[in-house]
Amino acid sequence: MIENMHFGNIAIVGDVILDRYISGRTDRISPEAPVPVLVHEHLNTVAGGAANVAANAAALGARVALVGLVGADDHATCLARTLARWDHIDTHGLVQDTHRQTTTKTRVMSGRQQIVRIDNEDTHAPAPAIQAELVEKAYMAIDGADILICSDYGKGVLDDGVLEKIITRARARNIPVIVDPKRTSFAAYRGATLVTPNRQELARATGLPVRTDEQIIAAARMAGAQFGGSVLVTRSEEGMTLWRDDGAVSHVRSQAAEVFDVSGAGDCVVATVAAILSAGHSMETSVTIANTAAAVAVGKLGTTTVSRAELSHALMRDMPDSGKCVSLEQAAAMARDWRHHGARVVFTNGCFDLLHPGHISLIQGAAAQGDKLIVALNTDRSVRRLKGESRPIQDERARATVIGALRNVDLVVLFDQDTPEEAIRAILPDVIVKGADYREDEVVGGDIVKASGGRVVLVDIMPGRSTTSLVRQAGGEPRAETDTTA
């Protein structure tokens, strides 16, 4: 999926940071004070803050114009060398301020354990002449961009005046604006398309509790009202929640198997959302892919980037062999994205236990009704409730792999309920297809689809073809049913 994406140009304005990692080992306590003694082994420097956002976007293949402030010091030189590793980052927008030091975070590490962090920074607003140069550089970057990221680490670059000017400039050119916030109120981000707080930042900006899904949604709604846009809440091990300014809500659960370090994970999310949006995809698809990127990022030690190859591998890793089985949230996001690009989405469902000609006939008939076909499969528990304890013959992973291997099938999604109504409400297909042994008024979800302008199609079936009949034949029993989705 991501290998074939063509990303646009991204302007990034904000607080650039140099992240330094002093690594070593500790095996004794100092005789001078009750503190560990670190035997220094290695020093590593990487881009942080807005510079890390730029590095992550460039790692995916996007072209980036980076705007920010640096000092006239060795750390600025080191940051420039670090950014020079990326071919797609234009650093002409970095303005040198001789009256401030380059923001630097130095982390002292013993193995994978962080012992202490040392910050060097000036957080005051720059002098008017420096700020004017900064805004001019930002305008130049925005004028050549498809999307703007404001990376606010509270280090003095993005004060209220600068934010108002650059957001206004971007919106006047119909350029989406994404903000990674660091404010006690999001009012200064008015005009932004999307703000991406973590749970703590959301609580600080709204004063509301943010433990449950319902509390997150309520707080996101209040936060959105402060600036007039959508809110993406990053929730660490619980994934992400996207609250759209039209009231729509999407929850994307975390895929991280093991968390080593959350440093820079928010930068990775913002960069990935912006890159996928710049390629013409929907907000929901962008968030789903960014969630996978974040899972890769937190599995690494220190501030880091996620490459296009790593992200592509991660997107495929958790799918069955067919590569098409996704969560309901992912299926809904992809369906919205397909419709956004003019495709007609078709939906059918069933147990699809032992694949037979009746199944193939149904799927071929469904695929002929549109451009993209989503097949919803009953989980093993759902099949047992419907068919009895002896079923299914094949477990849900095997069934999903077989159905997903069919050329006409674009996505497979599992549902645990007795009917696919919840899946249909989430996906909202343009067409629902069932066998002609149903009446149209018997098709679950038909009323939902027709209410949104879609239709129900009944396709001819092959009489006498079902999993149940195959099982009975194998046991020497006569065929007795014609449910093509059994």
UniProtKB/TrEMBL annotation:
Carbohydrate kinase PfkB domain residues are 10-305
Enzyme superclass (EC): transferase
- Where does this protein hold ATP? 198-201
* Gene Ontology molecular function: ATP binding; heptose 7-phosphate kinase activity; heptose-1-phosphate adenylyltransferase activity; phosphotransferase activity, alcohol group as acceptor
Query: Segment Ribokinase: which positions?
Result: 1-319
| Family as reported in the entry's similarity comment | In the N-terminal section; belongs to the carbohydrate kinase PfkB family.
Write down the NCBIfam families for this protein, in alphabetical order.
cyt_tran_rel, rfaE_dom_I, rfaE_dom_II
Q: What is this protein called?
A: Bifunctional protein HldE
Q: Which organism is it from?
A: Komagataeibacter diospyri
